[in-house]
Amino acid sequence: MATQSEANRKPALPLSATDVRVFRAVEEERRRIAMELHDDLGQQLTSSLIIAYQCHESIPDSDVEAKSLAAEVIECHRRIALASQRLVSNLQPGPALKFGLAFAVNNLVLEIQDLGVSAHFDDQLDDVELHPDTVLHLYRIVQEAANNVVKHSGGGNLDILICASEDNLVVVTITDTGKGFDLKRADHGRSGLSNMALHARMLNGDFSIQSVLNDDSASNHGTVVRCSILRTTVPVQVSSV
Ligand SMILES: Nc1ncnc2c1ncn2[C@@H]1O[C@H](COP(=O)(O)OP(=O)(O)O)[C@@H](O)[C@H]1O
Ligand SMILES: [Mg+2]
After folding, report:
1. Is 37 contained in some domain?
2. What's the domain count of the chain?
3. Of 45, 114, 122, 202, which one has the greatest count of Cβ atoms within 10 A?
4. What is the CATH number of the domain that holds 8?
5. Residues with C-beta less than 6 Å from any ligand 1 atom
6. Which residue, judged by its Cα, is nearest atom 13 of ligand 1?
């Protein structure tokens, strides 16, 4: 039987000082790991890619087998470099966020499409100005929900809608047409779902997750994550992006 459930509806719980401290620490740690990945691993990858190119060039065309092996090593490096860039931008989306929420979400969607997932972003934000920390919180919600679609939905289409409504709201909706899940049974010990709710609380926003399991009786299966906030919200500061 299809199950439909909804979580974390209003009223939002008040934020504790510990919540804020944890968020600041998480953002700080993400920034540190991103920097190490970029500066250390990134440099080493570049050096070894140059050596791989030199190997490839030094092999005579007549040695078809060795040449093709060297080409494979280069292709392997290229994939590792791309994966590492994706990790860095996942951990530290700050640079992209400086160009606004829509820009950063668009980048995220392009990265997800590169993984072969059908993903679409509808930007109806109309260039509304948001506080930089609001942008960060909303981005983290979109990022987690979208990554969940990639990891858990079993191949459903991903649709992200961000819109500014006439009644002064900004609404972010992440929808997939995947296999859905039972919220009551989901492992809430894992932090993704609860972190999204916490980000919404930082913005004093409404947050909900609805999911319909894919079984014989469900034609509209999949998951919808939604967060709406007042566009004038001044969030609890967790980071300077
Ligand atoms: N879009 C989705 N489709 C199907 N299952 C999902 C989706 N999002 C979350 N889930 C389920 O909820 C669980 C908890 O998610 P989350 O807290 O983000 O942890 P994690 O992604 O680390 O597993 C996931 O392990 C998965 O079973
Ligand atoms: Mg997750």
Report:
1. no
2. 1
3. 202
4. 3.30.565.10
5. 148-149, 151-153, 176, 178-181, 186-187, 190-193, 223
6. 186
- Residue 90 resides in a domain: no
Among protein residues, the one with the nearest Cα to ligand 1's atom 10 is 152
170-222 tens-digit pLDDT: 999 999 999 999 988 877 666 889 889 988 988 989 999 999 988 756 678 89
Decide if 31 is inside a domain.
Answer: no
Domain span at residue 130 reads 4-16+118-240
Nearest Cα residue to atom 26 of ligand 1: 152
pLDDT, tens digit (0-9, with 9 covering 90-100), for 126-137: 888 898 889 989
Q: What is the pLDDT of residue 12?
A: 56
- ∠ CA 105-241-88, rounded to 5°: 60
Q: Classify residue 203: in a domain, yes or no.
A: yes
Among the bound ligands, name the one nearest to the CA of residue 222: 1
Q: Quick one: pLDDT band at residue 240, thresholds 50, 70, 90?
A: very low
In this prediction, residues 108-117 reach a mean pLDDT of 90
Owner of token pair 């894992």: 190
> Mean pLDDT over residues 166-170, rounded?
90
